[in-house]
Design a protein that fits this description.
10-stranded mixed sheet, two-stranded antiparallel ribbon, 35% helix, 501 residues
């Protein structure tokens, strides 16, 4: 017994040393993180004020009119607590919270930060719920909503909790509240259109994760109406590994002196329909949502319930610094049944005169991403007709086939664009806010897609990588043609056959 005690003693000693080392490193990390955060820009009212959103339980028992009524209250509170309280220094021409600013959302004919519903002029042929992304607003869903409306669908586009108001609101919400708002929107779409017409779900980025989560939940909960089709744009099926540990970065914020540690980015809010500042909590919630989603996909696949999923049509840029492109393939499409699903990938501009600056792996990124054919889903790769021409083609491989069909699209890459981006997919080149060729420049106070700055580095409060990021899609018309085809198939008696034609 004495011998055992002697042997355990060195082990306990080393365990204590290791534990002490870990604690010391953690304390050091928190101090460094807290110190670094305090070196950044100051917090403003829009960072410290949070909207009084409904809880999950309240949303689940609310009508859409109830949700809109609370939304009205929230926007009035924001005006009183943020806009009406700005200091002289905060009243700048590019502050979306300044009432006299050209980017002030409430000053436009339509404030696209708010939930909206579009109804067709004639017979209702279907219903669709469209879900925007993280830090985003219903603005990003307007083109798709209008396309559905034109084909006879009721389009319900909710403002997800924490969005459309002030970035500080994202510090008080979680992904379960966003999912509750999704269920509410489906209830409203069903109330208006009835249960005898098709239901579609459309999700962009984080909204894509919510759309798929709802679909999976509807497989296991008979009280949830099942959609017939799903459309995803830059879907957040997986996020970067950093998001998993983002919560650690916010720990110092428990001490008021380190309040800014709760933010990953604190930048000016010049975009009328999207937050630029990004809180730690939002990153953490996005990771929790994707983990719940991936685990449920695997569970349904294991239990054989995945066979009941509706067809999924996705559009994804091969380059995406926000979500994991590989997760779209490996964590979603690999599990989908042979049901008419399709994945469209936007390749890089192979003809861009930047070859020496690109990472070599980019030129084969699509081939490295997709598993070898045949696959249970169709794939379409939008890429250059040849490495020296800007004209693009669609390389199509149908489900369960190995041969590839090439079709000219009569579209071309702009010569100064080397890829799409996460945020570019839902917007045409003509969009007044994000388009590179806006129909009406500065309609919303600024045309972000036309900004082309030249000057010295380290002089702006916004990173140059943000301003140079592509914000519109030169292949938007082709994408919409594919979506319109899916809508048309919804009216056919044999949906599966229509999708595979």
């Amino acid at each position: 017994m004495v011998s055992d005690r002697v042997q355990r003693s060195p082990v306990l000693k080393w365990l204590k040393i290791i534990a002490l080392g870990v604690v010391s490193l953690l304390i050091m990390f928190l101090l460094i993180r807290g110190y670094q955060s305090e070196q950044g820009p100051p917090l403003h009212r829009w960072h410290t004020w949070a909207a009084d959103e409904m809880t999950v339980e309240q949303i689940d028992h609310a009508t859409f009119d109830d949700y809109l009524a609370q939304e009205n209250v929230i926007f009035k509170q924001m005006k009183h607590n943020v806009t009406d309280q700005l200091s002289v220094e905060e009243k700048t021409s590019l502050n979306r919270y300044y009432a006299q600013s050209p980017v002030y959302p409430a000053g436009f004919a339509t404030d696209w930060n708010r939930s909206f519903v579009l109804k067709p002029a004639g017979e209702i042929k279907g219903a669709v719920v469209l879900l925007h992304g993280l830090t985003d607003s219903p603005y990003s869903m307007r083109y798709l909503a209008q396309a559905y409306q034109q084909q006879g669908y009721v389009a319900v586009v909710p403002r997800l909790p924490g969005h459309g108001t002030a970035p500080g609101s994202l510090t008080k919400v979680d992904w379960k509240m966003w999912l509750a708002a999704t269920r509410l929107a489906v209830r409203e779409a069903t109330r208006i259109a009835g249960t005898q017409v098709p239901l579609h779900l459309v999700g962009y980025s984080n909204g894509g994760a919510l759309a798929m989560k709802y679909v999976l939940d509807s497989q296991q909960n008979q009280n949830l109406r099942k959609p017939q089709q799903v459309v995803l744009l830059s879907p957040m099926i997986g996020v970067t590994a950093y998001a998993r540990f983002a919560g650690l970065a916010g720990w110092p914020a428990v001490f008021p002196v380190f309040a800014k540690a709760a933010w990953l980015n604190i930048v000016p809010e010049y975009n009328p329909f999207k937050y630029n500042s990004f809180p730690v909590r939002a990153a953490r919630q996005s990771w929790l949502l994707t983990q719940a989603l991936q685990e449920q996909i695997v569970q349904l696949a294991r239990d054989g319930e995945i066979r009941g999923l509706p067809p999924v049509l996705s559009f994804q840029s091969i380059l995406d610094s926000t979500v994991s492109t590989r997760a779209v393939v490996n964590a979603l499409y690999r599990y989908l049944p042979d049901n008419g699903s399709q994945l469209m990938i936007f390749d890089i501009n192979q003809a861009a005169n930047l070859r020496a600056l690109f990472r070599p792996a980019l030129y084969s990124a699509v081939n490295d991403l997709l598993p070898a054919a045949p696959r249970h889903y169709a794939t379409t790769v939008i890429t250059n007709a040849s490495p020296t021409t800007y004209e693009v083609v669609a390389r199509i491989t149908h489900a369960d086939q190995t041969n590839e069909v090439t079709r000219p699209l009569h579209l071309a890459w702009p010569q100064d664009m080397y890829s799409l981006s996460h945020i570019a997919v839902p917007f045409p080149l003509t969009d007044s806010l994000y388009g590179r060729e806006p129909t009406e420049k500065n309609r919303y106070g600024i045309s972000l897609g036309t900004i082309s700055l030249r000057g010295e580095t380290s002089s702006l409060t916004v990173g140059l990588d943000t301003l140079m990021r592509n914000t519109s899609n030169p292949f938007f018309t082709y994408m919409m043609a594919q979506i319109n085809g899916r809508i048309a198939c919804g009216q056919q008696s044999d949906l599966q056959q229509c999708l595979k034609e």
